[in-house]
Amino acid sequence: MIEKKKLTGYVLTGIMCLFMCGGIVAVWAGAPASASVSADPRAVYSGSSETNVALMFNVYSGEEYIPSIMNTLKSEGANATFFIGGCWAEKNAEILRSVSENGFEIGSHGYLHRDHSQMDYDANLREMRAADRMISGITGDPIKLFAPPSGAYSADTLDAAEHMGYVTVLWSKDTIDWRDHDENKITERATDGICGGDFILMHPTKETAAALPAIIGNIKAEGLVPACVSDAL
User: Fold this and answer.
1) What does residue 183 show for φ and ψ, rounded to 5 degrees?
2) How far apart are CA 185 and CA 70, in angstroms?
3) What is the reported pTM?
C-alpha cells in the first residue's frame, strides 16, 4: 500500500499514461492511494471465493482493443468486470452497450478520472452520480460496483459509495499494463501466485489483449475460474 504523499512521487517519477477525456487530462496511477483508510472493510481488495478469480478492466481509453478482449473472454468461457469512465461512455456508447449485451459485468470508474481522495463527500457523490446516470442510461442496468480512479479514496469516498449502494473495489494483483507495455510482464504480474478471490487489475491495451489468453490459461491451470468481481466476492 502506498500512502498519499508517496503516491505523488510515484506518479511524478513513473512513466505516466496521459489521455484526454471530455477536455480533461487525466493520469493513470497504478497503486492505491488510501493507506489511511485501508482498514475500512468497505474497501474490498480481494474476494472470499476459493475458486473464482476476478478479471477487471478499468476503461477510459483503449476502446479499439475491447472487441478483441471480449472475443478472447467469450472463446475461453471467461467472465470479467469492466469499470467504465463516464466521459468515456459518453463517447463510446455503442461499445459499452456491446460489452453489456455480451454479458460482462459493468461497474463505475467515476466520470472524469478524478482523485477521489481529495474530494469531499458532496463532490464524491456528484462524480459518482454523473457516471451512474451516463453508464446505466446506456446499458439499462443498475451499477453495483465502484472502482476509484488510481485506487485513490477517502472515508468520504466510501461514505458516498455506500450511499449509492456500491461496493468499492480495489485489487490484489496489479499488472501495471498502463505503464509497462510488455506482454510477458503483464502475464506474470497477473498470475504469479494466483489464488481464489484475487482481483486482477488490467486496462484495455494492445499488450494486455495479447496477454489475455495466457493469463486465462494460467488461471485455469491452477484449477481456478476467471470470473467477474461479483462472482469472486
Assistant:
1) -60, -40
2) 21
3) 0.86
